[in-house]
Design goal:
The chain has about 400 residues and is an all-alpha fold. Helices cover about 70% and strands about 0% of the residues.
Amino acid sequence: MSADEKVDFRHSAKASFDSASDLESDAEKVLDAQLQQESTHEIKYRTCSWQKTAALLFSEYICLAILSFPWSYSVLGMAPGIIVTFAVAASVQYTSLILWRYCLKHPEVRDVCDIGRNLFGGSQVAYNVTAVFFILNNTFIQALHCLVGAKLLNTLTNGTAACTVVWSIVTAVVCFFISLPRPLSQMSQLGTFSAATMFIAVLLAIIFAGIQEHPFGYIEGMEPLVTRLPVPGTTYVAGMSAFLNITYTFVGQITLPSFIAEMKNPKDFPKALWAVTIAEVVVFTLCGNQYMEAPAFGSLQPIYKKIAFSFAIPTIIFLGSLYSSVSARFVFFRLFRDSKHRHSNTVVGWTTWIGIVAATWIAAFVIAEIIPFFSDMLSLMSSLFDGWFG
């Protein structure tokens, strides 16, 4: 390389560095302006510390869907199941960090729909299409929690199939009230509690599976079997369903921009992300056998099932509420983009907010009644949405 070429290279590198520094400086100015503007508002949104964000992430990822892992491992076998778990975890971690860096450079981004618009050169069509799938994804997750809440209450009360619809309504109503706080920071303590109780539920499921004489549905002479590889005769549909169950549990990037948008210091987000990812991999690698169902409580004897399932109540209620809140926030901010109702305790603001939250739960209840099967709904949601938002 000649002396002139070296000089040009240095000038080019310096210009690139200066340009990156300018972009970072501009992003910090926008963030500071947002915080300064919010300081005079009655309702403040950028109030989450990284600890509160971690609590929201823990509640999102250490969720009821992890109980589909034993069933997935029983289909795939332990070796492929663990390989898939680590591969999906690494992929999700990598893409999540890229997403965080993008949000850091663009503090005006409030949700994944804004990113969809930016990726297509500011296209409003791209924004609207992303918004449709964003709302559908979140509503399907709410429906999943209506479904599991109904199954839980049916199990605890020894109810009949006819009672399931009633319990699904009860679950939706309770979740509706939990969804009402507007800033995400107000939901973080509930998130910590729901993640902790879900961890207890998982531990109880493991302990009870070990101490019970036989799994529920045991057939004489067919002992529980843990395999290294898929058992002969495993179909493509069963294997893909197991893979999608694992994928669904890890893929949660669709809400990350919404969480980052409410952090006081978005630079701290990786702390929350790494804490959750490490916990995920540790908790998720649970083995399964041919008697496993999804969720794993189904393989426990009735008394054990009731005890373990009862600790999942906070997660069932909170996580569905969290997704309802994220969806409602998107619609609410779109309706009141530059209005005082967005950040003030007005009658119009709160009436609209309550109406939007109620609409999400009505839609979720309808979906739960149309697809009343846990594993099938997980697979459907994973195939419909996770390829786009994961």
